[in-house]
Design a protein that fits this description.
Elements: E1 3-4, E2 7-8, H1 37-42, H2 51-68, H3 86-108, H4 113-141, E3 149-150, H5 173-198, H6 207-214, H7 216-222, H8 224-231, H9 241-246, H10 249-269, H11 286-314, E4 318-319, H12 334-379
Helix pairs in contact: 2-3, 2-11, 3-4, 4-5, 4-7, 4-12, 5-7, 5-12, 10-11
Subcellular location: Membrane
Main location: membrane
GO molecular function: metal ion binding; signaling receptor activity
């Protein structure tokens, strides 16, 4: 713990910390923004108003990983490094980075005001990257044709040009799914990062509403393959084992949406601390419930994707991985890891720009706090 003459530095009230650090209706449990890295790490085991925020996204990393690796033990599943699993691994990377960045942002944000800004810029970036990871999984496992090549001569060279798109119950969607879906997901993700980072430097009064509404857009774009499947008939025969495996997909999606809705309510309403300021400062405030609900939504999303993966693996008429003559090639390194790499590079560039701007604003305050802390430390000796 940060020491003051050999004693743990007491936690502070909202009146004793910079206005930038204050959270609505949270009155106590604040760490002053001059902790060292070691102090921040140790504060995970001390009841502060960030302790619950850390653990509610750090522990889920291990829970998610436990359910994720289950897929590779299924009968008939290819090896875990097969191209078929590239989208699933990108989805895992997105979720892992989201949960780790969120938990570390809440743990390390007391190092300085500048570090605080950078931590949450990274947090917003990983949320956006997660939405694209989800989009890749939806595209290759839930999309009506992407990467799934039917055997039995359907991909022969003399195949009619329109045969591939015949599987679309709504043919007008074929152009969007095949050409624009992934690029749209990436563009929307970048817009989300820019908007959320801006809320830390402007639009402060309505920042929680803006951030929540901003992330509604990638949800709508990413979920279009799921909406398509819900509005059309299953691609599997009703007597097949694949059909039985995929019947749980709508239930998991509805639960996924429900948890997202509940998390949005917590994030905007600031319930329950709004009703009793000071009573939920350490445990039980809205951001902890927000974290719990978002993780439950991710868990149901994982189960939904796994249901579709199992359906594909159980189908004897599908060829995995892609055939050369498929109009929609299956997952490749370029179309999965390459997409995520380009997106992450763009997001990092945005974070660097906003971080530089934050340093220009809060750097002088950081230096002043460091001097004050050094003088207090010298007085102890």
């Amino acid at each position: 713990m940060l020491l003051n003459c050999g004693q743990p530095l007491p936690l502070l009230r909202h009146t004793d910390v910079p206005p930038r650090v204050i959270e609505n209706f949270i009155l106590t449990g604040y760490r002053f923004p001059n902790y060292s890295l070691r102090d921040c790490l140790l504060s995970a085991f001390r009841p502060t108003n960030e302790t619950g925020n850390f653990w509610t996204h750090f522990l889920p990393v291990f829970i998610f990983s436990y359910y994720f690796v289950e897929v590779f033990g299924w009968e008939g599943a290819p090896h875990c490094d097969a191209p078929f699993f590239y989208p699933l691994w990108n989805y895992y990377i997105g979720v892992f980075c989201l949960l780790m960045a969120s938990s570390m942002a809440h743990l390390l944000n007391s190092m300085s005001l500048v570090v605080r800004e950078v931590c949450f810029f990274v947090d917003y970036g990983t949320i956006s990257a997660y939405t694209v990871g989800s989009s890749l999984a939806y595209y290759y496992y839930i999309h009506p044709r992407a990467g799934i090549v039917e055997t039995g001569g359907h991909n022969a060279p003399h195949e009619p040009a329109g045969a591939i798109t015949s599987s679309y119950a709504i043919p007008e969607f074929s152009v969007f799914f095949e050409t624009f879906y992934i690029p749209c997901a990436c563009v929307v993700a970048i817009i989300c990062v820019l908007s959320c980072c801006n809320t830390r430097q402007r639009w402060r009064k309505h920042r929680y509403v803006i951030r929540t509404l901003v992330f509604l857009l990638p949800f709508l774009v990413s979920s279009t393959p799921v909406f398509y499947r819900l509005l059309t008939r299953s691609p599997y025969s009703s007597t097949s084992s694949s059909f039985a495996a995929s019947t749980s997909m709508p239930t998991f999606f509805y639960r996924h949406c429900l948890w997202l809705l509940v998390s949005a309510v917590f994030n905007i309403s600031k319930f329950p601390e709004r009703l009793a300021p000071g009573c939920f400062d350490i445990w039980g405030h809205s951001h902890q419930w927000f974290h719990c609900c978002t993780f439950l939504s991710i868990l149901d999303e994982l189960q939904m994707i796994k249901a579709e993966v199992r359906a594909i693996l159980l189908s004897p008429t599908l060829l995995l991985p892609p055939a050369t003559l498929s109009r929609l090639p299956g997952p490749t390194i370029a179309s999965t890891y390459g997409v995520m790499f380009l997106l992450q590079t763009t997001i990092i560039s945005i974070i660097v720009w906003f971080s530089w701007h934050a340093n220009c604003i809060y750097g002088p305050q950081r230096d002043q706090l460091a001097k004050e802390h050094l003088n207090k430390h010298l007085k102890c000796h």
